[in-house]
């Protein structure tokens, strides 16, 4: 005969509700589980039985225990200080940290009598805890959302069929020799790398750096263009981490003396996958590995999300919708050229258009576009790929980069014979791009008759919502490039502050700064008469083309970024 469960005794919030006549003791006992459960199970039992509503319980708890009440639905989740409390502790007690000011932490609770939770938070954070009472149902939902561990997130994002595949780009190679399986299949190392990959994706990182040194090993994320250390795993794991990454990227794990390049795919669901481009580099203390995160959804954002001003967007769209000609995107490495090109390709990617691309390597996979990875060792160069494209009945051709005269001349020939050609060059701004092509040996006539638009770009960090007005001297604004008539007091510059959402940097995300220069008849005439980049820049100004600094200052006026950020990324 089974034992009868003991009758639970009333304590905390349940006892207070009975003592103040808000609940009958029998009803309170019926909502109290005889076995330990979740900290808010009693409250949900009362609500589900229709004995009291969530707002009534919250107001009662606030009144009796002398704690402020707060409407959690009105709180901006992006401002949550979710990193202030260990996520396991948050899930255990069903509380959420709302914000931190100095050494004080504001914590949302549904049961203000749960003193054990507050004591554990004080011990874990070494901060003074200020509780606020909120309604239980939205709190429980929010806890489930923000306290999920990486392992749980991984399962939710990927399901049981989590997979990391290799996209074997180029020629098939022989199976790489395998080292000791303990170096490759070590379960903790596998889980650790999966955690790092998921954290990087959730953090919006563009690159992951695995860096070995003599006495330590560190991992850094590049987020919004800035490198930030996120972990220092034990140095003894250096070789195991390297071997695991090389295996899933189909690299030769026995070769540690020369650089290698590979690729892998993280399948998150049936409809979403993230590609990683992997590069290894032998250093004094082991192999440094950099993984570039290539998210295909970045090309699906649409041109409106990239930061073009209305007139710049209109000029770019007019150029890519023309049936032939050449559109060039310029800027340093990491300035967002690939995303801009693929955004244009996505606009053009329609059933009646044949698009082919030659890249080194293809960074974003777009269905409906014929993408080719160049392979110099095998003889598949940019120029060889372009020659082949011209026999494939193309409408649009994208060349990853114009590096030499041969590629430039074939691209120009394609643009002159009824094809739209998109490509990139590494130059500082739009006018100097034309000088660069002339220095390659391209005839001025060919440049003037084929290039229809050049866009130069940079990426500036976007101010977080915690931004505050900034007092900048008049002279400094003038020196930066503002005109005196623009400083009429109708706008206010903002600067970074720092909060939990932006991890104290004051910036969250990035925005493009552009110089979009259509090749007008006057600019074409300057090119034909061997004018230099200064002559072209002066004419572009007369045509109403904003240079990079002017476009950046406009973002300052709009409160999108700070003056210091614009000066930093347009100081060529």
Question: What does the model show?
Answer:
It is a single chain. The chain is an alpha/beta fold and 572 residues long. Helix content is 36%, strand content 21%. The protein is built from 22 helices and 19 strands. Strands 4-8-9-10-5-6-7 form a 7-stranded antiparallel beta sheet, covered by helices on one side. Helix 8 crosses helix 10, helix 14 runs parallel beside helix 15 (405-416) and helix 16 (430-440) runs antiparallel to helix 20. The longest helix has 17 residues, at 187-203. It is elongated, with a radius of gyration of 30 Å. The termini are far apart. Residues 1-7 and 149-184 have low confidence and may be disordered.
Defining key terms:
seven-stranded mixed sheet; 36% helix; alpha/beta; seven-stranded antiparallel sheet
Short synopsis of the structure:
This protein has 572 residues and is an alpha/beta fold. Helix content is 36%, strand content 21%.
Largest sheet: 7 strands, antiparallel
In DSSP terms (H or I, runs of 4 or more residues), the helix count works out at 22
Report the principal-axis shape. Answer: elongated
Tell me the Rg in angstroms. 30 Å
Q: Which structural class best describes the helix and strand composition?
A: alpha/beta
Q: Helical content, roughly?
A: 25-40%
What is the topology?
Blueprint: H1 12-19, H2 25-30, H3 41-48, H4 54-65, H5 87-93, E1 96-101, E2 104-109, H6 115-125, E3 128-133, H7 136-146, H8 150-158, E4 163-165, H9 181-184, H10 187-203, E5 207-212, E6 217-223, E7 226-231, H11 238-248, E8 260-267, E9 273-283, E10 286-294, H12 310-320, E11 325-330, H13 337-348, E12 355-359, E13 370-373, H14 382-389, E14 396-399, H15 405-416, E15 420-425, H16 430-440, H17 444-450, E16 451-463, E17 468-469, H18 474-480, E18 494-495, E19 507-518, H19 521-528, H20 533-542, H21 548-557, H22 563-569
Helix pairs in contact: 8-10, 14-15, 15-17, 16-20, 17-19, 19-20
């Amino acid at each position: 005969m089974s034992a009868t469960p003991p009758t639970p005794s009333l304590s905390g919030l349940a006892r207070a509700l009975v003592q103040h006549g808000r609940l009958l003791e029998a009803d309170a006992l019926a909502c109290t589980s005889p076995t330990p459960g979740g900290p808010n199970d009693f409250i949900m039992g009362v609500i589900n039985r229709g004995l009291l509503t969530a707002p009534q319980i919250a107001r009662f708890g606030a009144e009796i225990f002398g704690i402020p009440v707060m409407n959690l639905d009105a709180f901006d989740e992006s401002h949550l200080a979710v990193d202030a409390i260990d996520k396991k502790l948050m899930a255990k007690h069903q509380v959420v940290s709302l914000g931190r000011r100095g050494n004080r932490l504001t914590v949302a609770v549904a049961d203000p009598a749960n003193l054990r939770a507050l004591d554990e938070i004080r011990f874990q954070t070494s901060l003074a805890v200020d509780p606020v009472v909120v309604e239980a149902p939205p709190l429980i939902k929010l806890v489930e959302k923000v306290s999920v561990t990486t392992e749980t997130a991984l399962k939710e994002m990927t399901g049981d069929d989590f997979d990391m595949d290799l996209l074997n780009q180029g020629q098939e190679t022989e199976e790489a020799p395998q080292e000791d399986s303990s170096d490759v299949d070590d379960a903790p190392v596998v889980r650790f790398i999966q955690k790092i990959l998921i954290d990087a994706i959730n953090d919006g990182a563009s690159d992951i750096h695995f860096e070995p040194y003599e006495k330590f090993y560190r991992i850094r994320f590049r987020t919004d263009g800035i490198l930030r250390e996120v972990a220092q795993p034990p140095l003894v794991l250096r070789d195991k981490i390297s071997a695991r990454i090389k295996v899933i990227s189909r690299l030769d794990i026995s070769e540690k003396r020369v650089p290698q390049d590979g690729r892998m795919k993280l399948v998150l669901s049936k409809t979403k996958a993230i590609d990683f481009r992997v590069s290894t580099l032998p250093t004094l203390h082991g192999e440094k590995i950099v993984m570039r995160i290539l998210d295909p959804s970045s090309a699906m954002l649409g041109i409106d999300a990239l930061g073009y001003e209305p007139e710049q967007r209109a000029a770019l769209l007019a150029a890519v919708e023309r049936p032939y000609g050449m559109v060039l995107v310029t800027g340093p490495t990491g300035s967002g050229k690939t995303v801009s090109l693929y955004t244009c390709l996505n606009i053009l990617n329609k059933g009646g258009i044949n698009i082919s691309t030659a890249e080194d390597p293809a960074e974003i996979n777009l269905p409906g576009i014929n993408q080719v990875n160049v392979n110099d060792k095998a003889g598949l160069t940019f120029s060889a790929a372009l020659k082949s494209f011209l026999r494939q009945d193309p409408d649009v051709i994208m060349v990853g980069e114009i590096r030499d005269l041969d590629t430039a001349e074939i691209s120009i020939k394609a643009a002159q014979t009824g094809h739209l050609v998109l490509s990139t060059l590494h130059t500082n701004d739009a006018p100097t791009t034309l000088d660069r092509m002339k220095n390659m040996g391209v005839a001025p006539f060919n440049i003037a008759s084929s290039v229809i638009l050049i866009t130069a770009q940079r990426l500036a960090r976007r101010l977080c919502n915690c931004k505050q007005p900034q007092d900048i001297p008049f002279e400094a604004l003038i020196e930066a490039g503002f005109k005196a008539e623009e400083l009429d007091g109708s706008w206010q510059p903002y600067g970074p502050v720092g909060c939990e959402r932006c991890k104290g940097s004051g910036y969250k995300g990035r925005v493009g700064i552009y110089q979009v220069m259509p090749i007008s008849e006057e600019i074409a005439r300057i090119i034909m008469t061997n004018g230099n980049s200064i002559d072209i820049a002066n004419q572009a100004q007369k045509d109403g083309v904003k240079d990079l600094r002017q476009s950046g200052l406009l973002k300052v006026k709009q409160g999108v970024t700070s003056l210091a950020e614009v000066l930093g990324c347009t100081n060529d």
